[in-house]
Amino acid sequence: MWFTILIVRKLRGSEWSGVGIAVGGGLIFGQIAVSLPPYSRIEYGIMFFFFTGIRPWVGAIFLLLATLAGQAQPVSGTVRDNRGQPLPAAAVLVQGLQKGAITDASGHYSIQNVPAGTFTIQASFVGYSMQRRQINVGGGPLTIDFTLADDALSMDALVVTGTFDPRTKLESSVAITTLNSRAIEQRAPRSTGDLLQSVPGVWADNSSGEVGAKVVARGLAPVGNDQVGYQYVSLQEEGLPVMGAQVGFILVDMFQRADLTTARLEAIRGGSASITAANSPGGIFNFISKTGGSTFSGSVRTTGGFYGNNKGLGRVDAEFGGPLAKGWGYHVGGFYRVDGGARTTPFMANEGGQVRANVSKLFAGGRGSLKIYGKYLDDRNTFFKDIPLTNTLTAGYAGGVDPVNINYSTTFLDVSTQIPLADQVRADNLGTGPLRTFNARDAIRNKSVSGGFDLSYDLGKGWGLGVRAKVSSFDQAYIQFQGSTVLPTIPILTPSATLPAQLGYLQYGGATLLGAAAYSGVPAAQRADVTAAVTSALIPSLLSPTYYDAQTGEVLARVKNGQLDPTVPNKLGNYLFSTAPLSFYNTAQDFIWSLNLTKEIGAHQLTFGSYQSRTAIDTRWYADGVITTLSAHPRAVRIDFPQPATVPAIVANDPALNATYGPLFGTGRFNATDANGFSLHSGLAYTFTHNVSHLGAYYVNDIWKANNRLTLDLGLRYERVRQTGTKQGWQSALALVGLGGLDRNPLTTYNTGSRVYNGVLFDYDAAYTVSSATGKPVATQTNPDVNGDGPGFLYDYLSWSAGANYKLADNTAGYLRVSRGNKAPELDYYANNFVNIPLDKKGAIETVTQAELGLKRNGRRASLSATAFYSYLDNALLQLFVISGASSFFTDPTFNASRTLGLELETVLNPTNRFSIRAHATLQDAKYARLTYVNTIDVTNIFTESFAGNRVKDVAPLIVDLTPTYRVGKFSPYVNYRWFSERQGNRRNSIQLPAYGILSAGISGDLTTRLSVSAQATNLLNSAGILFFNGYGLQGTTVEDVAVGGVKRPDGTVLRGTDINVLNALGSPVFARPVLPSQYTASVTYRF
């Protein structure tokens, strides 16, 4: 008798059993149960074969046949599109086993250890329809190749953003747009903000260049602060926010870049963002990176090009990845680029890059996955600001000697100077303290390091675990220019009937000589007489400036007692230009984690979770003043004016007064600027803050599959946000030193108005003693907890979202969702307000209520997503800084509301196999439901106005984006046209920004399976549509307070400087920022 023991591998069982017994000439099987310990991912079946009258080699044959029939086999192949090109990062999955793989750059995949049996294997890739095939495993290795058809709306793609349960777009009850790496490449975006314009319902102002975009989803635009560009939406990487909190200039898109490592973008508008994202009820934009595949692969792309101003750009992207041991994979990539700039600057506009890397693991038996990732970014960027234009907003200002070009000019100048470090200035180190250097060439230096992980794991018995965590460090040196003011070449000290006084260069340090504060040390009995005598003597000198080119020393113009000197050619024209050089240094440390626990109970999937973040941000903000020519290529202007020769008698006859004010008189000259044209050292901002934001959220969600067609979900999210910190107070150099300023020289007026630390450090939510002498707070704290809710300010609120998805057919579904989200103030609420006063007023919790009704249809020739939406933003703060003549003030805080009704349409049409049209459109009616503009602070300019019913500024009622593509052989040429309807330039709706369109085109081709080429031309017709309006720039005018016929006070009189007709008649420029001009690029991509 002969017997054979056969060991067979199989997957997913708990015990091993089986005995086969052969008696006589036949096989008779009996079974006994056997339990053995598991080995790795494999379980064993044991069979005993007993043979009588059969030679041993027959048993060996049975053994071989049984082994071949029963052991696990590999399944491999390729995934390609319908043009035969490989699809890297496509997902291939064996259903039921949850075993899968990701394709490499050649489109190849390999799944090991697939057990014997019949299974369904599927391949999917964002932008292509999922394909399923039935396979029989057991007869040896299998090769299964897939060819995926286009599905540009990605209805079959699994979406992980804004949901607690990954599901396809068709099955989701939210508005989702997905863009894969190929779609992103075709858009050739200039920035993250530019790319997000591919999403219906989203408007982005990306005219500032590569960074600093303003992104508005579904009309949810800031009512007050415009500085934070991603105010109601969350910009994410790997499912977590890029930053947990923001302040002013250290904004999220400064630290996010898309490159070849990006696998796809998932964009959620409204809906479930209220409960799945932190403090961001408007939407989520999540960038997901590639992971390593089953074989080593990668790609390299080189891009070169130029702008219409002949400035060049070059960029190299690279990525590669592959397998590691025991199911691990890795992926590494990044980019580096140099960019001369779409607008002409005297230095390189953008230079730098990033490196991203991850290792990933697919757990045995499809139990889940783990991704560990890191990123290092070091990038230098330029933020393009508004430029001087004609009042028609259609051409550059031509009033100077160097006409401005609306497409290519900037107000940047190449300038550098040294300035005392304002926070280190003390009475005992004047003139000897440390210095800082402003150098315009430094631009914005953004550096960040981050690392994190994303874990999902099937715990068994219906339980699942998801954990994400990330730690980040950010460092930013923001060296830029901001603000636009027009200065008349001839100062005008007296207001007219229609215009405030136009002090020109004197509005900076020189004006201190005319202010009563300069003479505060004079005995009260003499003060009025001394002030009148000294200022009267100074006025002829103040009206006699000489203007020089700061670099060459050339005299550009001279004024004598309020009249141009005819012996000196005027090379300035009627106006100069003034802007603020910013030296803003920001650092941040960020820790974010989230935990999800899911449980399947029948048709319900429950999720319980928590999200926690701690963000600490420190700001050191200095702002100076510089005066330049008003021209296409600004040059710094140095200014001086003569001393009056005769000392007034009231000063000369008093030794004490003569010692203080006598040095103002003589035969020398005052320096209104330093040698480099800086008119004010640290005089326009001094903001030193330490901010900490703790956010803790707890949420629960239920997804109920009521039947095969109907899915319902309901979620609740409770958030607590605690914001703590400190802010330094400041005083002017005039108060610290007197007329001598920081260098104790009364003839250098540019440092008289400097802001320096005053020794007071304000804690959030604390009250302080007020000095009886000055009326200002001092360092003594009287109440550390004004609001009585613990350290700093506490905001807590409950958000919710409910949705339903009904599958009308296999390719058609409708959905309904209603949500209510909340948002605590951004940290810049404290940085930008509370100037030299205690931070004892809590900010407002804004609420966003949304409803949407959508229809999705996936077809071979046509796919459609249509969503009607309603959004209501409530309790939004409006508090504006207003300059009115010689005074400036913050308006009273008011809390306001806006509402938007709209329709989003997204479609892809494929009339033929070669021709396709992708289009999306947004139709929206965004209005202020409640908007009150109030001032009771400045008693000379009291007003109360309601802008209710006005359209929300900047939001276009109609946006259309159309992209037809035609495939010719290996090449696919395309055209893209975007059109934006007329918008409002201010809240008053007195400025309209004209409609405009942008035409772009390109062509891409796959020369081989490894080599691709492409070329793009963006804004072919050099459109100069206006995206941002910043007012007339004349002293005493504002963006809001202009109207035809002027803005009237309650008594019916018209405020000076507010009548648009009067301002236009002056021939001075207005300031606005057009869209970026033409760009032409070509790229070559090699896959290996």
UniProtKB/TrEMBL annotation:
<feature type="domain" description="TonB-dependent receptor plug">
    <location>
        <begin position="169"/>
        <end position="284"/>
    </location>
</feature>
<feature type="domain" description="TonB-dependent receptor-like beta-barrel">
    <location>
        <begin position="406"/>
        <end position="1020"/>
    </location>
</feature>
<comment type="similarity">
    <text>Belongs to the TonB-dependent receptor family.</text>
</comment>
<dbReference type="Pfam" id="PF13715">
    <property type="entry name" value="CarbopepD_reg_2"/>
</dbReference>
<keyword id="KW-0812">Transmembrane</keyword>
<feature type="transmembrane region" description="Helical">
    <location>
        <begin position="48"/>
        <end position="70"/>
    </location>
</feature>
<dbReference type="InterPro" id="IPR036942">
    <property type="entry name" value="Beta-barrel_TonB_sf"/>
</dbReference>
<keyword id="KW-0813">Transport</keyword>
<dbReference type="InterPro" id="IPR039426">
    <property type="entry name" value="TonB-dep_rcpt-like"/>
</dbReference>
<dbReference type="InterPro" id="IPR000531">
    <property type="entry name" value="Beta-barrel_TonB"/>
</dbReference>
<keyword id="KW-0798">TonB box</keyword>
<keyword id="KW-0410">Iron transport</keyword>
<keyword id="KW-1133">Transmembrane helix</keyword>
<keyword id="KW-0472">Membrane</keyword>
<feature type="transmembrane region" description="Helical">
    <location>
        <begin position="16"/>
        <end position="36"/>
    </location>
</feature>
<dbReference type="GO" id="GO:0015344">
    <property type="term" value="F:siderophore uptake transmembrane transporter activity"/>
</dbReference>
<dbReference type="InterPro" id="IPR012910">
    <property type="entry name" value="Plug_dom"/>
</dbReference>
<dbReference type="Pfam" id="PF00593">
    <property type="entry name" value="TonB_dep_Rec_b-barrel"/>
</dbReference>
<dbReference type="InterPro" id="IPR008969">
    <property type="entry name" value="CarboxyPept-like_regulatory"/>
</dbReference>
<keyword id="KW-0998">Cell outer membrane</keyword>
<dbReference type="InterPro" id="IPR037066">
    <property type="entry name" value="Plug_dom_sf"/>
</dbReference>
<keyword id="KW-0732">Signal</keyword>
<dbReference type="GO" id="GO:0009279">
    <property type="term" value="C:cell outer membrane"/>
</dbReference>
<keyword id="KW-0408">Iron</keyword>
<protein>
    <submittedName>
        <fullName>TonB-dependent receptor</fullName>
    </submittedName>
</protein>
<dbReference type="Pfam" id="PF07715">
    <property type="entry name" value="Plug"/>
</dbReference>
<keyword id="KW-1134">Transmembrane beta strand</keyword>
<keyword id="KW-0406">Ion transport</keyword>
<keyword id="KW-0675">Receptor</keyword>
